[in-house]
Write a sequence for this structure.
């Protein structure tokens, strides 16, 4: 009788051991799969083409030039990323509202379209490291020297777009005389004509407008609000995101990124 019980115990222990081995095996398989990543990089590597989506109507970031070719900061960055991955970039113009859906449906491999990294979007896509650090800056006339940081706008006439995040930033300073506008062109003009002391806008948009129109204006060297821009990939493709991040780091380290930024915006990128 005792021998029978011992045999039952030994059989039970053996079964437990077998189940444990199976579970470990399943866990190892999952881990290996995660390391291998998803299908996006395999598809790119096989085709030697990385399909990049953006609106294609948003200068100076992505738009069609007079030769009907895509141009802009995002285009140059995309080409640099692709080159360092050993493939070519192919551009697909897509309405903004269709970018994330198209990515999830494998219509393209990556979105490089000035997309802000937000917690809400992280639920739908995976972001690379930020390829643009942007945000609001103070814009003044060249001869203005007493407005360099946000608290300096107290008792100043401040122009902003109505309903924008920049209006919220301006109104956070007690005593600022905040004036709202429907278009950026209007408050840029009022600043030049001395009807305003300072305006607040996105650093890259401001730099491009100043450069293109040779305006006698300057921007602050630090942000008054920040916005991180990333490249979006389909979730579950960590290997691809990792490769893009590596290429982006190389572009920043060897000076290519700064050169492209100056090419399109006429100034070095703001980093603080």
């Amino acid at each position: 009788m005792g021998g029978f019980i011992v045999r039952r115990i030994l059989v039970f222990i053996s079964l437990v051991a077998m189940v444990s081995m199976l579970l470990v095996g399943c866990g190892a398989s999952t881990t290996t799969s995660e390391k291998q990543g998803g299908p996006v990089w395999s598809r790119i590597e096989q085709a030697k083409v990385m399909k990049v989506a953006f609106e294609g109507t948003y200068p100076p970031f992505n738009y069609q030039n007079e030769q009907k070719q895509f141009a802009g900061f995002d285009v140059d960055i995309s080409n640099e990323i692709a080159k360092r991955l050993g493939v070519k970039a192919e551009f697909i113009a897509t309405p903004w509202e269709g970018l994330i859906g198209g990515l999830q449906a494998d219509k393209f491999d990556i979105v490089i379209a000035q997309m802000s990294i937000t917690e809400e979007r992280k639920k739908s896509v995976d972001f690379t490291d930020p390829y643009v650090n942007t945000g609001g800056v103070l814009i003044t006339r060249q001869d203005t020297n007493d407005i360099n940081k946000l608290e300096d706008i107290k008792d100043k006439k401040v122009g902003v777009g109505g309903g924008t995040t920049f209006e919220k930033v301006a109104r956070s300073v007690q005593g600022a005389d905040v004036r709202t506008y429907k278009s950026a062109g209007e408050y840029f003009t009022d600043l030049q004509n001395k009807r305003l002391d300072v305006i607040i806008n996105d650093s890259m948009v401001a730099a491009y407008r100043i450069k293109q129109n040779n305006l006698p204006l300057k921007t602050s060297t630090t942000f008054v609000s920040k916005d991180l821009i990333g490249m979006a990939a389909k979730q579950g493709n960590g290997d691809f995101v990792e490769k893009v991040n590596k290429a982006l780091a190389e572009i920043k380290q060897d000076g290519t990124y700064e050169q492209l930024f100056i090419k399109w915006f006429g100034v070095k990128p703001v980093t603080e």
Residues 1-36 have pLDDT under 50 and may be disordered. The radius of gyration is 26 Å. The first helix runs from residue 2 to 36.
